[in-house]
Amino acid sequence: MVTEHRCEAMKPRTDAGRVVLLVQRHDDTREMYAEFLRHNGLTPIAVSNGTDAVNAAPGADVVVTGIALNGDIDGVELIGRLRHDERTNTTPIIVLTGCVQPTDRQRAEDAGCEVFLEKPCLPEALLREVRRMLAVPWRRANPRSGSRHAPRISRRA
Fold first, then answer.
1. CATH 3.40.50.2300 applies to domain 15-136+152-156
2. pTM flag (> 0.85)
3. pLDDT tens-digit readout, 91-107
4. Exposure string (b/e) for 50-67, b if CB count within 10 Å is 16 or more?
């Protein structure tokens, strides 16, 4: 008799090929998360600075950014720029950062991020949030709040 039980990893994913813009200043961190996302069927674009992120963002389904970035644009300014660009103003943004002061969180949320994840963060926790953002059908227009963004969620992963 054949059973219907299948491992979660064997189930087909609807997010295969979806693009995740990963903006992290440290090479090791950026490469580790990018490889994990790639291994799980997503297409990461990994950059270390805000300028490259602004240029790559229109092609992304989700943006994952730190707060402290290389170059002259930090993550909070990046979020603001993406929210004011009609090509990216509805793209979900996840902040993944070691900058965990209450003021850092508040600045990121005020700029328009949907999720704030503190480092250290397991790659599985980031993947779970990316997939959640990809699966949220109402992220483009939340009728309850009048906001164009999903409700903000702060988590310690």
1. yes
2. no
3. 999 999 999 999 999 99
4. bebbbebbeebbbbbbbb
